[in-house]
# Entry
Amino acid sequence: MSSHTSKTPRFTHQAAAGWRERLFRIVFEADTRAGRVFDYSLIVTILLSVAVVLADSVEALRGRFGPAFNLLEWLFTAIFTAEYLLRLLCVRHPWRYALSFFGLVDLLALLPTYLALFVPELHLLIDVRVLRLLRVFRVFKLAAYVNEYQMLAEALVATRRKILIFMSVVLMIVLVAGTVMYLVEGAENGYSSIPTSMYWAITTMTTVGFGDITPKTDLGRFIASAMMLLGWGTLAVPTGIVTSEMAQKRRQAPPAPSTRSCPECLSEGHLAAARFCHHCGAALPAAT
# Structure
């Protein structure tokens, strides 16, 4: 009898751990059918919720479908709240996830709707619509489900020095061109200061060309033409740097990792045969 009672708490603990481990694989990993269904469903829900936010910002649509938009918003909020609670429930260190980047994004996707209940719609306080517009931050949740986002982020980090040097060169060109145009055109033609002339140089070099400031002299037009031609080549430089880095990373990439996540530190990208986390060394759940 005593032996039976001593084993009962252990059995209950193992059952809870197994249930939590299965939930962890569904919520945080996508190598199983249930995990893929969960991720795809969440992606569709995120896109639909952002579409509702966009539609709700159109006055004609809000006047006609306002109650339906509010109902859908609360439905999406309930879904995201349940997802957030599930993530906190199945991890071993809930605060670690809550304070992570995606944990904060998840929280930011929920707070505006709940805060809107407590912020009075008074002109002296912030308009409640400002809080509602924060719901578009849900789109950042998509980065958790698309591997290419991570690859692009790694390429940007790896090329940050090259891009910084490129931006410094662009800044020098803009400064020189703005100063020259300030001297050539002068305040009478709209180039009232060097910062204003630099603004013109930026819009011209990026081929945006708002047209609010335009050169009037022949020399000024010649400089503007040179800036436009220079802008064509300039825009291609950062694109080439990043794409070259991405191509190199793809060639040097190790075998494709799975979406197995560490229950301790929540890091992802472990190989299917990995037994321990490559980040913190914790034991990984057995792959299924």
